[in-house]
Write a structure and sequence with these properties.
2 domains, mainly beta, Virus Head Decoration Protein, Chain: A, Head_decoration_D, 237 residues, five-stranded mixed β-barrel
Length: 237
């Protein structure tokens, strides 16, 4: 094949320069509140809350995500400073309505413990390696390389939170829409704004959890969510 002439080389150089100037593909997130068509005056349509990430990976939740109600309290676990055993307590699930306070886990034997509420009333007994559930708390204590002894223990500190929300999956009713984009670290939560009432929204800009969009009955799940939102005064057009 012959070499390019002057005009041909000039055209090739121009095409190369154009190719080098092409910008990379960017993924743009939805703007905060972009799904809103109209809402009530002031902040009547909105509530403060917390969006919960119950997975073991960081998650970015888009503004416009349809959400369900989570709990209204959370728990932190404090390990006894004089424990002989080096086992660990897993994350504590707190049922709605659980009274805040310090709950005490006290070992009576290497694998056996009791749980008492903040008033000293025993609410249950458990064993290591087996899920405990009682008094609004659910957790599992794993044995370590050094066994627990009588007198070892943990304190479960239950504190009241703002209302908590999780992505709508169809397991419970939809109650609102996440207003703002937020990234939440694994097994954690972040303060957010939720649209809860008296609003008109663009249904095409609502965001759905992957468990909904990937479900065989995705259309049904979304219709149920929109019906729940409409009952709360949030109408999708």
């Amino acid at each position: 094949m012959g070499s390019l002439g002057g005009a041909g080389r000039h055209q090739a150089e121009i095409l190369k320069e154009i190719g080098e100037m092409v910008s990379p593909v960017l993924n743009e997130h939805f703007y905060d509140g972009a799904f809103l068509v109209r809402e009530a005056n002031g902040f009547l349509s909105r509530d403060l809350g917390e969006i919960v990430n119950a997975t073991e990976s960081d998650v970015t939740f888009e503004g416009g995500l349809v959400v369900s109600a989570g709990g209204t309290a959370r728990a932190d676990v404090v390990t006894g400073v004089e424990n002989t055993g080096n086992g660990t307590a897993g994350a504590v699930t707190v049922a709605s309505g659980t009274v805040p306070g310090n709950y005490v886990v006290a070992f009576t034997a290497p694998t056996a413990f009791t749980v008492s509420d903040f008033s000293g009333n025993e609410i249950g007994a458990g064993t290591t390696g087996t899920a405990f559930s009682g008094g609004g708390l659910a957790f599992t204590i794993a044995a370590g390389t050094t066994a627990f002894v009588a007198g070892d223990g943990f304190t479960i500190v239950v504190v009241a939170n703002d209302a908590q929300y999780v992505p709508y999956t169809g397991a419970t009713a939809a109650v609102g829409i996440l207003f703002n984009l937020t990234t939440v670290p694994s097994l954690s939560y972040r303060k957010v704004t939720i649209v809860k009432r008296m609003a008109e929204v663009n249904g095409a800009e609502l965001q759905w959890d992957a468990s909904v969009t990937g479900a065989a009955n995705a259309t049904t799940l979304q219709a149920q969510a929109l019906a729940s939102l409409a009952a709360a005064g949030i109408v999708a057009r």
